Amino acid sequence: MDSELFPVIWFGLIGLALILYVILDGYSLGIGILFACVKDEQQRGIMLTSAAPFWDGNQTWLVLSAAGLYGAFPMVYASLLPAMYLPLILMLMCLFFRGMTFEFRSEAKSHKGFDTGFCLVTIVVAFIQGMIVGSVIAGLVSDDGNFAENALSWFSGFGLCTGIALVIGYALLGDTWLIMKTEGRLQRRFYRLVRPLMILFMLAMLVVVAGTPLANERIAERWSHWPNPVWLGLATATMLALAITAVRSAARRQEKRIFAQVVAMFVLGLAGLVASLYPVMLPPDMTLWAAASSRSSQQFLLVGYAILLPIILGYTAYSYRVFRGKVRESEE
Questions:
Q1: pLDDT for 236-289, tens place per residue?
Q2: Among 24, 243, 268, 329, which residue's beta carbon has the most beta carbons within 10 A?
């Protein structure tokens, strides 16, 4: 096998793990964000119960992607981590607190403090993840692979836009998940949220797409070269079509279809970002071949991934199959 193919394989594997994390943990973060729209403690308990069997397993994909990045692309890991220490530490602290509120809420006499904390930390986690994406798109200044700016360089106006967009996107994803898992009055509430959340998400995405070529010159140049404008137009039209059909699916009470359509929007957006950056892994100019570890290291790590990936996929599929169906008030 050509040694230049291994970085491409690892790029795809890490990308797969990140996409699965964004989708699977995204809806559980969305549930926390939607706590702001639901005041009844019993209904909040039902919302949490809908994700309780899955939320800790969903974060496995984040760990798997980080481990793959560390082993397969150490230069990216070494350049990205110093630039993102502050947001990453804050995000991990919030994830820890989210887990604590998730588990301890049912044992507390009063749920109000835990519910408020759960909502706030999930919003912070989603916002930081979006900020990190925006900072990566805008590019990090490096000196021979080492981060060469101050610790607040991750904070930017474009990052604020991507952070807000991801918070809204996770709320929409969580909303469609809860439509599938709830019923009655609570489900009707989430059906009503689909249209406003979709409008806000599309407006946020429009701002992000308009700001991306301004934040990254390489992407601006790529988008301007034929036939890339055609592909960009097709992707935009597809995203708009998915948004319209998702709202229609909500009006027709097609609960599983609407979740699949929102997931497709996330996958399309992430695929478009990867296509715009490839083969650059860390803007402005760190390609995946330049950042890759040795061929022997990547081969060794590939054995571990070949063992772990089917196990994690199998466990995930099995858990979702076992806990399929609606969550009812008696289960809270």
A1: 999 999 999 999 999 999 889 999 999 999 999 988 888 888 888 888 778 888
A2: 24
